Amino acid sequence: MQITPDLQPELGLSVTEAARRAQILSATIATIADLGYRKTSFARIKERAGLSSTRIIGYHFGNKAGLMQAVVTTALDIKQKFALELADGTTDRATMLRAMIESEVRFLRDYPECVQVLREVAANADDPEGWSVSGPLLEGFRIGQFERILRQGQQEGAFGEFQPDVVARTIAHAIDGAAAAFTADPSLDLDRYGRELADLFERTTAPRS
Amino acid sequence: MQITPDLQPELGLSVTEAARRAQILSATIATIADLGYRKTSFARIKERAGLSSTRIIGYHFGNKAGLMQAVVTTALDIKQKFALELADGTTDRATMLRAMIESEVRFLRDYPECVQVLREVAANADDPEGWSVSGPLLEGFRIGQFERILRQGQQEGAFGEFQPDVVARTIAHAIDGAAAAFTADPSLDLDRYGRELADLFERTTAPRS
Amino acid sequence: MQITPDLQPELGLSVTEAARRAQILSATIATIADLGYRKTSFARIKERAGLSSTRIIGYHFGNKAGLMQAVVTTALDIKQKFALELADGTTDRATMLRAMIESEVRFLRDYPECVQVLREVAANADDPEGWSVSGPLLEGFRIGQFERILRQGQQEGAFGEFQPDVVARTIAHAIDGAAAAFTADPSLDLDRYGRELADLFERTTAPRS
Amino acid sequence: MQITPDLQPELGLSVTEAARRAQILSATIATIADLGYRKTSFARIKERAGLSSTRIIGYHFGNKAGLMQAVVTTALDIKQKFALELADGTTDRATMLRAMIESEVRFLRDYPECVQVLREVAANADDPEGWSVSGPLLEGFRIGQFERILRQGQQEGAFGEFQPDVVARTIAHAIDGAAAAFTADPSLDLDRYGRELADLFERTTAPRS
DNA sequence: TATGAATGAGAGTTCATTCAT
DNA sequence: AATGAATGAACTCTCATTCAT
Questions:
Q1: Contact, A65 CB vs strand E, < 7 Å
Q2: pLDDT at B169 over 70
Q3: Contact assessment for residue B112 and residue B33, using Cβ atoms and an 8 Å cutoff
Q4: Domains by residue range for chain A, with CATH
Q5: Among positive and negative, which fits the CA dihedral C131, C135, C141, C142?
Q6: Cβ of residue C7 near strand F, that is under 7 Å?
Q7: Nearest nucleic acid nucleotide to A52, CA to C1' distance
């Protein structure tokens, strides 16, 4: 599944410019997902996008940092939209936790390049100076989401006793584990994996009977 | 704590050569732990080791791949010795699992650079042609250990029902999570973290009552 | 003090065009005075002038050479007006020389960016092909003024014996010295400096008693 | 006259390395003197020195900054040796001042590229970060020499009343004027120019009779 | 056992300019 | 009167590696 960023991601861009940006962005994401961040150079992106010169990338994004910034923004955008579509009205904490875990894994199934790219860029976000979306920040955001739910659930008595920060971080890394497994073996049944993961953390967080 | 590889890691080396190798290896590990794999170049290693030329690195290890190979071997060696010292004679699967998890976290506490280096190298091991210890292989080894215990425990009735591969992978990544948390905040109480992790997976793997 | 070029520097320009030219010119002069000629690029000028694209610069001035040409013309214009305002009706050569030197230094005090810009552009005027006001030419013009006075004064017996070309050139560079000193230390008392310089060359040019 | 740096400028260099360094240095100085600092690139130096690749320059000097550092050091070295050879035992301040001025101009006559290079590099020494010999520093050093003599002479009554800082700076820039004149017209009689300059400042600094 | 010297490939950036509309 | 889009050239730098001795 190819990532096709919206043609009008930001206001004030002409149609052609937005199209070019989308074209380059798409090629960049594909390249990172394919070869990893390290081997992703302007030259490689140029080839994949069928551009005549690498210069045009710098023209549209100013910088390598600017390009990566845009890549992250795009990927995060896609993820958010995906999450919104899946969101149901449950307020039961245990059900919510299960939904979040399964949603993450399903996103991995539907947009593996997105997940890959987010990981790659976050892991190598120490190169330049002016990144507004740094690796730790990204990670912290994701963990924070889980931690909040866990704490609320504990207060409401929906969960048992455990340290929310540790469990939250473990959930996040468990999902990374799913991504790693899927990368290593694309035939992996992610639905099963997601269910199993949700079960796992259900048992872990269940209140003492 | 500085990593000091054994002076006689391989047979057939003179004392001076072994010493040089150890010196370079130590500097390499320190550099990777400090700056990450990406910024670790021959030049950087040269500086830290106080060498006059980068040439000597290539001389002793032939290659960048060769150097990294040696780094991984060294780190794995240290880890294995650490594990052996801690091993007790338990045959109870649940106790063994707890011991393994806590041992991993304790290793992280005592040899953080080692863990860091193993992660960094494994994550960037797609570069070269001639690696005998590739990233996935390394990962697979670690997961395999957990998976074996889990399966045996299930057969013996010590554990409940779950998919061993998923849980095993999740444990491995949960420990990576501990490493990431420790990197982000070195004042983290790893003993607490280890205990919590062991508790977490105890609950997860416990047999249905 | 900001340089604001006249809005109608050349005939046949509409009001808006003249305004745009003035805006760009002003930004260019400020940039050169601030960062020096070398770091003054279209991009930098664009930023300071708040333009949307560098393209508009080329549109109005055709060329970098054209832009610099205009800059020099503007600066020279300002200088000439300044000199005219100060000019008194003296015909005494010694008094005229003193007046010219002090006028130059006072101009430096009142329009330091102008002087800076003239120096910077003159010093780097070997770049292009089509400059009508080249560096040496600019320098020659200034020196010529002094030299003329000196020769006339010598003929009239107002000055002693010396080689007018050498002294003229020395005066010009002495004033450059004042500029350099002022750049290095903006708190410098330029009036004192100017008087001292005038005294200096008065002694030098005085007739043998 | 070609600048040929000593073959053993610094200890610890092998003969071949010193020779290469000298070769590159010589080509660099010639290039700067010929085309100016701005147009002096590794590629241009490579051509003039007959090297196979620009890479070798970076190899020997590490950096462009390193190369320029070495250029300045070399030029300053040559100048110092020149000055030492000319130094006579006079202690009379007026004579010393004259000697210094004429020595500077004679150096310009004998090593015009050296003077040119020093000027060019000093004028463009704001590019990088790690320069130990910056432009203002270099200038300050030269002016300081003149200022010291002037002050001492005033105390001893050998000179009249004037502000030593202004006069010192003026002398330095007067010599720059000679360099500029010589660059514009290489057939210029520098000996005459130097004598005239010395006369000029003799009159300026002479005690009131 | 070690080093000095050299090198080719590739990366990201900046720059002024040109072709359209 | 102005802009959007694109581009080619040049530059410095870092990297791992190779050829000698």
A1: yes
A2: yes
A3: yes
A4: 15-205 (1.10.357.10)
A5: positive
A6: no
A7: F7
